[in-house]
Structures are given as C-alpha cells and as structure tokens.
Amino acid sequence: MVRFDQVRRGAEDAVLRSLSFALAPGSFHMLTGLRGVGKTSLLRLICLADAPTQGVVQVFGRDVATLSPKDASFTRRRIGSVLYPLVFVDHLTVWDNVALPPRVTGRRLADYGAEVAAVLKWLGLAKLADARPQALSVAERHRLAIARAVVNRPEILLVDEPDTELDAAEAQRALKLVGEIHAAGATVVMACRDEAFAAASGQPVIRLLEGRATVIEADGR
Amino acid sequence: MNAPPRPGRILRSSPWRRLTPALVLGVLALLGGLALLMDAAGYRATRGFASRFAGVETVVVWSHGLESADAAQARAAEILAGVPGVGTVTPLDPATGDALIAHILGAPAASEPRLLAVDTAGGGKSSARRLQQVLGAQDVPGLAVDHNWKDSSTARKAGLIVTVSVLAPLIAILGFALVCAGEARREMAKGHGVIDLMRTSGATEGYVAGLVGARVAGLAFTAALWGAAGAMVAAALVSRRGFVDALGGLSRGDLISPWPLVIVVVWLVGAFAAWLSALSRLKRRT
Lengths: 221, 286
Prior knowledge:
The complex is a heterodimer. Chain A is of the alpha/beta class. Chain A is about 35% helix and about 25% strand. Chain A is globular and about 45 Å long. Chain B is an alpha+beta fold. In chain B, strands 2-3-1-4 form a four-stranded antiparallel beta sheet. The mean pLDDT of chain B is about 80. At the A-B interface, helix 2, helix 4 and helix 5 of A face helix 6 and helix 7 of B.
C-alpha cells in the first residue's frame, strides 16, 4: 500500500534522512518519536503534500515521482489526512468544512450531502453543523478534522498527534474512532508523541529516531 | 440536519477590502479606456481625412499671350492626359475654380486662372513636379499642387498617433494583467493553509487556480467598472463641451458604446492573468 525506500526529505539538515519501511493494505501503525523528529513530514510525504528529496515513495503501488499532476490529485483523493496545524475554512460552517473534500473533487451536493450528514452524526457534530469552526472546542475541532478526512471514504487515513492537544479521554476517543475506520478496511497511520499511548493502542509502531524508521510489531519484536 | 441549499464560497471575494489594488486597477482601466477613446478619435480624424486626398493633384493654369484661360485649360488637359501614370484629367468650371483658387494660392485671381483635377492613380511625391515640368515644356504656365505630399505627411502623423494610441491601451492592459497576477500571488500566500488543504483533499491544480482566478476576477471586474465609469464621465464632459468635432467627429454613441466590451475584456484579461499566475505557482510548488 505504502513503501518508502531510502527516502530523504530536506537538504543538509534533513529531519528524515534514510527512511525505509512498508505498510500493508489494511494495517494500522502508530508513528512515534520526539517532537521535531519528522512525524508530520513523514505523513505529508505519504499524502503527497510534499515530495521526497531523495529515494522512492510508492503509494498504491506507484512511485509518486512519476505521477502527473492530475494523477497525483486523484491519488490524494484516496487518502484522508488530519495534519497539524489543523486548518479550517473559518468563514464556512462545520457542514461546509466537512463537505470540502467531495466538493473540491467535483462531486455534486446531491451525491455527498447524505454522507456528510452521516459522518457528522457519527462523530457527534450534527448539532454543530451550522457553527463556525472557531466556535468549537479543541476536541470538537479535532473531530471535525477527522470527519473531513474520512468523508470521502479514504483507503489510507493519516492522523497527526491526537495526544498533543487533546486530553487523555478525548485522545482515547479519537483512537477509538480511527479504530472503527480501520475496521472498515482503511490503512491507518496515527502519529503520537506519547510512547505509552502508542503501546496501549495494541498496534505496531513505527519509531522515528535520527531520521530513520524502525518498525516494532505489536508483540514487541 | 439538511444540507445547505448552496455551499459557501471557499475563497471569499471581497474587493472592497482590497482597496489599494482595486484603486490601482481602476486607474489603469480608466487610462486604458481614455487611450482607447483617443485611439478611435485619432484614427477617425487622420485616416478619414487623409483618404480624401489620395492620388489627386490640382493644376492651376493661366492665360498666356494670345491664348485665353479656357484655351490654356483645354490644352493643359490634353497634355496632362498623355502623361504616363495620369488617369483622368477633369477641367473644373470657372466658378468652382475661382472659389478654390483663393484657398490654394492665397491671392485673388488676377489672370483668370483655371483649375484641373488630375487623378494620378496614387502617384508619388514626384507627380506634381513632373506635371509642372511637362506643362512648362509645352509652354503652358501652370502650377501643380501636390495633395499627395499632404497625404503622406498626414499619413505619417496618423501612423504615429495610431501607434501611440494602440500601444497605450495595450500597455494599460499589460499593467492590469501584471497587477492581477501579483494579486493572485498575494492571495496564494495569504490563503496558503486553505490551498494546501484543498490540494491534500484531491483538488486539481486547475480547480485551485480557478478559485484564485475567480477571486481576483471579482476585483478586476469592480476595477473595470470604475475605470469605464470614469472614462464615460470624461467622454460625457467632452461631448457636452462641444469637443466632439475635435475628436475626429466621434459621435456621442461612439463615446459611450465601447465600454461594455472594454469591461468584459479587462475582466477576462485580469481573470486569465490571475489564473495563469496561480497555476504556475502551484506547479512550482509540486
């Protein structure tokens, strides 16, 4: 599903220097490492927000460097991401913010309206549909970002550090919601700073250290 | 929870908040419009006037010795008709000739001169001199007045006026396009987060560039309206003060009618420049 081979991102002081790992379809990995170690940069490489400086990134079996701009856009549509800092269109309602991905990919309101409503209901945001994002609490904003990331039913879901801004209960709630999406078939990578949080998830861990990745299976191998 | 009847705009269009670029664009549109007006007036005045004199000489002959003025006129017509390059020679009747002579010679007719209109079929500057030489050789005292000389002089001036007045609106439009492109770059920088969000959500470069272009197009349209309104006011003032004749005979309709087209052209140029600028920036980023 995702394969990194000797990937480097950046110049001399690159955070990611030689990343090599693979994610199988339907897998769920926690991504850990200290602050500034490059977790968000790695997620941005997977969702094609950035391009690698060196090495090969394959997503859905294709080298992202060989994708045309249009193919890259179509590939991004199969990936949902919750990246920090969370960005919303502040003058739009919660409903419109969730509807953004299907809307910018050319789908019609009649086609995606029911899906947006269902996702908002599932994440407990239905009553806030007409609110503006800045009126939401931190936890609600995080759930809004998850809603936006999953509304297009992505095959890969990337979630950035729910344990940073959310309290323990909300972080667990986020983990549970993401687990449900994983159970529905999505390949998931969730970044977090807290090793204990990652270990408690019971999922394999990709640990970033000094620009390299080490994959640790759930049983500690 | 129902879907909203119409989703809100992803990038808000608020030209009134961007007063400085709106003013710059408005002034550029106004200058472009005024230059266009001058262009139309200049073209009408010079080309229309000059074309009346193309290829026509006027020859003045006098009575000489025992030969009457009418006989001299008839002999000159016969001689000139045989000159290579001359098409038709038309002797003018004395009444018409007398009226014109004062204009040409600036003196009252003392020796009963007669006029001939000679069509030289677009002959050059040498035609008048040549006609006069031919008449002199045949002992017919005459003066050939070269309207072609006036024509070429007028045409040169016309060319200069038309060139300047065509270049002026083009420069104004180029400036307009550059300002719109710059405004698109500013929008991209300001809305970096939302644009990144759209791209990671799967929006194509064309879609994002279209949104940015549409946002700047709103500004361009407003500016074009201001510019056209200003130019129309200027045209109305010119017309009211009776300067229409000085503008090469442009009618009041001529002064008003081009503006809808100007607004649309300026708007489209602005939108296209902004779209192109946004697209190139997105491509550079990937």
